Structure formats: structure tokens, C-alpha cells
């Protein structure tokens, strides 16, 4: 039995088992009025459909500004053709002075604005199709939320079923919506007397691709094609073509209904009776002739979710008297559901997952840690592992990036689509804190599967990552120390890359990453790599002044001028186990950050980052305070998503970070005090029961 498994067994046996179904049921969303921030999704980790109060996307126009309603999948990407005369190979790099040589970075927009913008926006995620209620005689006439009365929508988290009830024109309507766990297919069951009267129908329509938040351009019908592949009495099969993107759609209904086109890219389905059951499926390859029925899809969805909740980790805060406990438990439950839907696919997720576009739908690899590592702590390793093959696939691209800049090894990009090409940005190409991430992921894989096969699978990535890290660090002639930068952008992204040097978190992560890479060499029966060891031995110490850590070397005004954006210095003993960290100094640093930081200018994962550092530093009261700070960017919608600002109204690193922090606070970490829930206060107001959680590194 591994050390992790032994600790897991002990935590699971402490106290009575948790009634997981009761905990989940306490926090299932119930919606009674139209609210864009209450939009709910069904999905399977690779595909998602976000619905409004009708269980469909009827109010998409009203939601578009605040919380767009989209249908999308991990494979659904679109590239707009380059404008005439624009060639991606013509991109001009900006050179930065680096230890006596010029190093090119993709940060320059001046003189190539059109190309710069095109490279940032492409590829982008694609809205696969919008499904809504419609009036048969006036399909173009929109519905209004005011048309609905006596609304009650309930998301049954335990079975993955969204049930929507309302009255329209004085008539009741019932909609049941769910997603197949293996296919990118939706099942709907609708009961509406208005169908029989011919007053209500269903409309399916398709947009052109767009890098916008809403993923859709409805104003360009001549730029895409919707071809009928087959039409049968109870089925419509379509082929969609948008430039280089192609996908198949099947709409199959089980009750009598009349189908007719309602435009070049829209179809109207008018039921003959008061009930309509149908499946709507999407795929980049042709779909089988026979799809699962609505009942079979509902059964599969229920089987999937009733297996999800009883496995993995669980936390029960029932009996706590702290007034924040109920909200924390709600966030825990809804974050588990939302991350399983949006952060557990074959690719690293966008910061808005499969909801709608953020940064054109591309993923930020420095955020992958916050999206996915919590799955390991919650004992759902398989969900974590799904996206890791991406690093193996883009390793050649990472090697080419390092080589272009004159470094050894592999330099991992920051903002990418599925092809792995780094997007130009004034910030992204200069970030370095994503570089050790693949070593962290490899170490988690080893702890899960301590087998020679794991070592061989990750060997190249660990070694090539460490090669770059050792190559990037340069020896300062004045001090003899190895230093990081300039140029570089720190985690907080708010300082001048041409003068930034030795940021605290990045130094700590460099040390941990190189030490772990050397450990991998030992596991493989290889001697230590001398270059890595030289950097490790000579790496600059973490910068500090007056008994406190600084954001970066020389930044003595950290707590007065630079006390905004990410308080990344806390990550050295929060995300990381604290190699080279003075515990007492970090404890004082946590206190000072809590006192002085401008929290309204932070981001959703900064609160759990701070909580993790506070817990590890022996400040559990501050850990809870940080995790639940009442500021706008730490707000969680009725649907459980983390609000940031207009245009970024969901932010899954916040959800993943919250789960990471709670797991650490409840289950502990390597070297934690041997007490129950060491990261929670012992003031008598918290009753923490947990099972199935893994202690942190």
C-alpha cells in the first residue's frame, strides 16, 4: 500500500460514513425566475449544453450579454480564413536582451495588427447549434421571460437530470433535459398541451463561427453551409461546414411531428400531440443510424452520476455553526459538478470551460493546474488524467519554441488551441510559471501508479522540461547565483518584464521542479544531471525584507504599491510544499497579505491560493477567511460558477481552486499536524467530516 493509499484509508475510517446523497441534495439548484446567472448545464466532460429556465436555449438573446447559452464540445473548433495578404508565417517577433543576446518573443503587435489579432483569435471554439421553443406561425418572433409564469426548474445533480416546469399562455409545460455520458448527445422529453393546439414548436438553428464570448455570428448566413444528408419520417441528418470545420448533426424524435425548414440554417419541428421526445446528437464523424432512445439516454446519464457522487472524496459540514458553512458546502458540491462537466475532457479547459468563450476559447496552460489538480486530491484521478496526453502531443511544438529562443529542452506555451501554438500577447509568451507544471503532473501520476511504465511514459516530458528550466536560469556574474529573468512576466503580470528578476513563487517552483526531475533520474537508475544540480545548488534565495517575503527581488514596496493582482508569493507554501521556505516568515507574510491586499483587484483562484498558504502556515482562521472573502470576484452564482467581471461571468479556476483548498484544509498535507482537518479552525464552530480525500503534496 502506498503512503497516499494508507492515509486515504485512515481518513475514510474516521467517524461515521457521510450520507453523500443528503449532502448533494441540500445544494441542488432550484430556480423560480429568469436569471442569466442561474443558467444550468448538462454534459459529460467533453460536451456541454447550457440551458435557460425553459430547459432549452429559448432566451439566448436575453442571456447573451451576461451568460451566453451555448452548445459546444472539446472537438468543436473553427478557424476564420486569414484576411487577404495575411500570412501567419510572416509574424515578426520582438527581441529582448537576455544575458548578452537577443531572444525573440511573440509580443509585438505594432505594424502587424491584423496578423497579431488573427493569430490570437484563431482557432476559436464553436457553438454547435441553438435549440429553443418557437411559435410555428412566427418562428422569428422571440419569446420573453415575462411570458413564463409559475416557474420551477430543478437540477437533479444525483442523476444528471434538468427538469423545467412553467406556464406559457396559461398552459403548463414540462421539459426534462439530460446528456449522454459517452456520446455528445442530448435527450429531451417535453409535455405541453400547446403542442396540440399548434401554438408551440421547437427550433434548431446554426450560426457561423466567432471568436466572441457567445461563440456565434448570426449575421453571416452565406459563410457556412447546412446540408441535408438524410431526412426520414422521424429523423433529420445534417452536415455542417464552416470553412475548415465540419461536423454532423442528427435530430431524432420518437413521437409524431412535422419538420420543415425555417431558413438556410434553421429547422422547425411541430409536434402532433402533447408530448415530444427526441435526441439531438453532434459529432465530427458520421453518427450511427440508430441513436440511443430518450429513455436509454436518461438511464445512462442517471447511471453515470449515481456512480460519480458515491466515489471519490466527500466533505460534510452539517452541524457547523459558523454562518459561512452552508455557503461553503454549496460551493463545494456545485464546483464538483461544474468541474466534472467543464474541466474533465481530453484537452486542458478554457477558463470558462465548455460554457462560452473566454480568450477565444483557448486554454491557458498556467491555469491547467487550477482546473484539474484538485481531481487527484478528491480521488478522481481518471478525470485529471484525461487531458494529460495533450503535453505528449505538443512536445515537438514546445521543443521548437525553446530552440527558436536559443534554449535547451521544451518551453511550454501559455495560451493555445488544440494545435499547441503559442498565441501572441504582450504578457503570455513571457510567463514562466507554467513551465514546471508537467513535472508536477508527472509526479502525481507516479504517486498514483508507481510503476516503471509511468516513468517511461513521462520521462521525456520531465527531462525536457527540466532541461529548459536549467537553461533558462542564468548565472549572475556579480553574485555567482543562478537567477530568473529578465525578461519574464511574473504570475501577477503587472510588472515590467525587462526589469523583473527572481520572483518568489517562480524561484520556489524552479527549485521544486529541478529537485523532482533529479528524483526521477534516480528512479530510472540514472545519475544526477550536473547542469540541473549546478542550478539547484546555486539558485538565488527567495527574496525577503524586514522578515517578510517579497513578490520579487528588490520589490520592497510589495505591500504598499504592488499589493494587487495575484498574491503569488504565497504559492511557495500553498500550491507547493515549501522547499526553501522559512515557515515563520511565510506565516508573517500570510498575515500581512491578508491585512494589505486589494482583494477587489484579485482573481477567483487567489482566494483558495491564500487559504492554502494560510492553512500550511498554521493559520486556519485566516484560511477560512481567505476562502470566503466577501468581494465581487469571490462571488458564486446560483449555478455555482465564479463571477469575475462583465465578459467573464464564469471562471472555473475559482471552482477548481476552491476544491483544492478544501481538500488540503480537510485532509492535510505531507508534514501536516497529526490532527483532524488541520486547515480548519478548532473554535468549535466547524464540524468537518470528510472521506476519500487525499492529503496534498
In DSSP terms (H or I, runs of 4 or more residues), the helix count works out at 20
The CATH superfamily of the domain at 32-79 and 123-308 appears as putative glycoside hydrolase family protein from bacillus halodurans
Could you tell me the strand content as a percent range?
Answer: 15-25%
User: What is the annotated CATH architecture of the domain at 32-79 and 123-308?
Assistant: Distorted Sandwich
N/C terminus separation: 17 Å
Question: Main sheet?
Answer: 9 strands, antiparallel
CATH topology of the domain at 32-79 and 123-308: Beta-galactosidase, Chain A, domain 5
Helical coverage, percent range: 25-40%
If you average the pLDDT, what whole number results? 96
Beta-strand segment tally: 30
Q: Which residues form runs of ≥5 with pLDDT under 50?
A: 5-14
Structural class: alpha+beta
Write down the overall geometry. Answer: globular
Q: Please compute the radius of gyration using only Cα atoms.
A: 26 Å
Describe, in plain words, how this protein is organized in 3D:
The protein has a domain at 32-79 and 123-308: Beta-galactosidase, Chain A, domain 5 (Distorted Sandwich), CATH 2.70.98. The chain is built from 20 helices and 30 strands. The longest helix has 21 residues, at 452-472. Mean pLDDT is 96; it is low at 5-14. 30% of the residues lie in helices and 20% in strands.
Index terms:
alpha+beta; Beta-galactosidase, Chain A, domain 5; 20 helices; 30 strands; 30% helix
Amino acid at each position: 500500500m502506498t503512503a497516499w493509499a494508507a492515509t486515504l484509508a485512515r481518513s475514510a475510517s474516521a467517524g461515521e460514513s457521510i450520507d453523500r446523497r443528503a449532502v448533494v441534495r441540500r445544494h441542488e439548484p432550484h430556480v423560480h425566475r429568469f436569471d442569466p446567472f442561474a443558467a444550468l448545464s448538462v454534459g459529460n466532460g467533453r460536451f456541454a449544453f447550457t440551458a435557460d429556465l425553459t430547459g432549452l436555449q429559448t432566451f439566448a438573446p436575453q442571456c447573451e450579454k451576461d451568460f451566453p447559452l451555448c452548445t459546444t464540445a472539446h472537438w468543436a473548433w473553427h478557424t476564420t480564413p486569414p484576411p487577404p495578404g495575411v500570412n501567419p508565417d510572416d509574424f515578426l517577433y520582438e527581441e529582448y536582451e537576455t544575458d548578452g543576446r537577443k531572444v525573440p518573443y511573440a509580443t509585438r503587435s505594432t505594424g502587424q495588427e491584423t496578423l497579431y489579432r488573427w493569430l490570437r483569435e484563431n482557432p476559436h471554439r464553436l457553438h454547435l447549434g441553438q435549440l429553443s421553443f418557437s411559435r410555428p406561425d412566427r418562428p422569428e418572433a422571440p419569446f420573453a421571460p415575462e411570458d413564463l409564469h409559475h416557474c420551477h426548474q430543478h437540477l437533479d445533480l444525483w442523476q444528471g437530470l434538468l427538469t423545467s416546469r412553467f406556464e406559457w399562455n396559461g398552459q403548463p409545460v414540462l421539459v426534462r433535459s439530460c446528456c449522454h455520458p459517452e456520446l455528445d448527445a442530448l435527450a429531451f422529453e417535453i409535455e405541453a398541451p400547446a403542442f396540440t393546439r399548434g401554438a408551440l414548436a421547437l427550433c434548431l438553428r446554426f450560426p457561423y463561427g466567432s471568436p466572441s464570448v457567445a461563440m456565434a455570428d448570426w449575421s453571416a448566413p452565406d459563410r457556412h453551409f447546412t446540408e441535408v444528408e438524410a431526412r426520414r419520417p422521424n429523423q433529420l441528418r445534417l452536415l455542417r461546414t464552416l470553412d475548415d470545420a465540419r461536423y454532423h448533426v442528427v435530430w431524432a424524435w420518437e413521437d409524431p411531428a412535422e419538420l420543415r425548414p425555417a431558413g438556410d440554417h434553421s429547422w422547425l419541428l411541430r409536434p402532433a400531440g402533447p408530448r415530444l421526445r427526441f435526441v439531438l446528437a453532434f459529432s465530427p464523424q458520421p453518427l450511427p443510424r440508430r441513436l440511443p432512445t430518450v429513455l436509454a439516454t436518461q438511464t445512462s446519464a442517471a447511471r453515470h452520476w449515481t456512480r460519480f457522487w458515491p466515489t471519490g472524496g466527500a466533505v460534510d459540514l452539517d452541524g457547523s455553526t459558523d454562518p459561512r458553512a452552508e455557503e461553503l458546502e454549496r460551493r463545494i458540491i456545485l464546483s464538483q459538478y461544474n468541474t466534472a462537466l467543464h474541466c474533465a475532457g481530453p484537452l486542458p479547459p478554457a477558463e470558462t470551460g465548455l460554457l462560452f468563450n473566454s480568450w477565444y476559447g483557448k486554454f491557458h496552460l498556467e491555469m491547467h493546474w487550477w482546473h484539474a489538480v484538485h481531481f487527484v486530491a478528491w480521488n478522481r484521478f481518471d478525470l485529471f488524467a484525461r487531458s494529460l496526453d495533450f503535453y505528449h502531443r505538443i512536445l515537438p511544438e514546445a521543443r521548437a519554441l525553446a530552440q527558436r529562443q536559443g534554449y535547451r529542452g521544451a518551453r511550454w506555451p501559455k495560451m493555445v488551441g488544440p494545435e499547441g501554438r503559442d498565441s501572441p500577447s504582450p504578457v503570455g509568451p513571457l510567463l514562466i510559471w507554467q513551465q514546471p507544471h508537467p513535472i508536477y503532473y508527472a509526479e502525481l501520476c507516479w504517486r498514483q501508479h508507481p510503476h516503471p511504465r509511468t516513468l517511461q511514459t513521462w520521462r521525456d516530458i520531465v527531462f525536457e522540461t527540466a532541461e529548459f528550466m536549467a537553461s533558462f536560469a542564468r548565472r549572475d556574474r556579480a553574485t555567482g547565483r543562478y537567477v530568473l529573468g529578465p525578461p519574464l512576466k511574473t504570475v501577477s503580470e503587472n510588472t515590467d518584464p525587462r526589469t523583473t528578476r527572481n520572483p518568489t513563487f517562480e524561484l520556489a517552483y524552479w527549485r521544486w521542479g529541478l529537485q523532482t526531475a533529479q528524483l526521477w533520474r534516480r528512479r530510472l537508475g540514472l545519475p544526477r544531471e550536473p547542469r540541473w544540480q549546478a542550478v539547484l545548488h546555486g539558485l538565488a534565495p527567495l527574496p525577503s525584507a524586514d522578515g517578510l517575503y517579497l513578490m520579487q527581488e528588490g520589490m520592497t514596496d510589495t505591500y504598499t504599491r504592488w499589493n494587487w493582482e495575484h498574491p503569488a508569493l504565497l504559492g511557495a507554501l500553498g500550491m507547493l510544499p515549501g522547499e526553501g521556505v522559512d515557515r515563520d516568515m511565510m506565516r508573517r507574510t500570510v498575515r500581512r497579505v491578508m491585512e494589505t491586499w486589494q482583494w477587489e483587484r484579485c482573481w477567483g483562484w487567489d482566494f483558495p491560493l491564500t487559504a492554502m498558504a494560510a492553512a500550511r502556515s498554521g493559520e486556519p482562521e485566516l484560511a477560512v477567511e481567505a476562502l470566503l472573502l466577501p468581494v465581487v470576484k469571490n462571488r458564486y452564482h446560483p449555478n455555482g460558477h465564479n463571477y469575475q467581471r462583465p465578459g467573464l461571468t464564469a471562471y472555473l479556476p475559482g471552482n477548481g481552486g476552491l476544491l483544492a483548498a478544501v481538500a488540503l484544509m480537510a485532509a492535510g498535507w505531507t508534514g501536516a499536524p497529526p490532527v483532524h482537518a488541520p486547515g480548519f479552525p478548532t473554535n468549535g464552530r466547524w464540524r468537518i467530516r470528510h472521506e476519500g480525500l487525499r492529503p496534498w503534496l
